[in-house]
Design brief:
The protein starts with 10 loop residues before the first strand and ends in a 10-residue tail after the last helix. It has a six-stranded mixed beta sheet, with helices on one face. The protein has a single domain (11-241), classed as Metallo-beta-lactamase, Chain A (4-Layer Sandwich). Helix 6 (203-215) runs antiparallel to helix 7 (231-241). The chain is of the alpha/beta class. It is built from seven helices and 14 strands.
């Protein structure tokens, strides 16, 4: 990718929102600044700020906030983080009414854990709503060069209608909840084994998007729960996933 913008070779830092990789945010660090991928649960902006400080950076160094989808453990601190950093938020139009808190999220459990987790009501806890500064539609992509990096944010629906991923030319990919690893929610054990997240709207579409990323050359997949995973393990999971049917949504 050749542009007129100065770009950085990325350095990736996982920010544990909950211990053992159960819920992750990620920082993409470079000489020109930092991109935040997902913001964690409400009140997590302090954890992100402390992680930046340990790297010799501050909230003002954030150039872009990426919200991969509208679930509370990914979007919960986005409004506060934007308020403190002044960085723009990018998200997808498919989830924008959820992000604005105009419409409750619906959830399609992938198994017993998803059903049990939903009964805790943790997934429907409130967070400060917001309107993204940059909205992607189906098939659209955002060039990251103006934000200091080589790559793009692109639409990757399936987990939710508005799921997006960050795809870097370093072959690192940040896919939110298109995939997970480990036991239960994420990182307790078997972190190198890919699995479905607790909720997933359309497994066949997720499989299609994961295979498209693998075939495009992605090598390392970073996610909201567990990980990271190599491309071979993601491919194995996608081949299994594409034969499953969508599960009925629960309110």
């Amino acid at each position: 990718m050749k542009t007129g913008y100065a770009v950085s070779t990325p350095r990736i830092l996982r920010v544990p929102i909950l211990p053992m990789g159960l819920v992750n945010a990620h920082l993409i660090l470079g000489e020109q600044g930092c991109i935040v991928v997902d913001t964690g649960l409400p009140g997590s902006e302090g954890k992100i700020e402390r992680a930046l400080r340990r790297e010799g950076k501050a909230l003002r160094d954030i150039t872009l906030i990426v919200v991969t989808h509208g679930h509370v453990d990914h979007a919960g601190s986005a409004a506060r983080l934007r308020e403190h950093s002044k960085a723009p938020i990018v998200a997808h139009v498919g989830d924008v009414r959820h992000l604005r808190r105009e419409l409750p999220m619906t959830f399609c459990p992938t198994g017993w854990f998803g059903r049990a987790f939903l009964h805790t009501r943790l997934m429907v806890q409130p967070y400060v709503g917001f309107t993204p500064d940059l909205l992607l539609a189906e098939g659209e992509a955002l060039d990251l060069a103006p934000y200091g990096f080589q790559g793009m944010v692109r639409s990757t629906p399936g987990h939710t209608a508005g799921s997006i991923s960050v795809v870097l030319t370093s072959r690192d990919v940040f896919v939110g909840d298109l995939i997970a690893s480990g036991l239960l929610l994420g990182g307790i054990a078997r972190t190198g084994h890919a699995k479905r997240p607790p909720f997933e709207d359309d497994p066949a579409r997720v499989a299609q998007e994961l295979m498209r990323l693998v075939e495009a050359g992605a090598q390392r997949f970073y996610m909201g729960h567990g990980g990271p995973l190599p491309a071979g393990e993601v491919r194995r999971h996608a081949l299994h996933l594409k034969f499953l049917s969508p599960i009925k949504e629960l309110p």
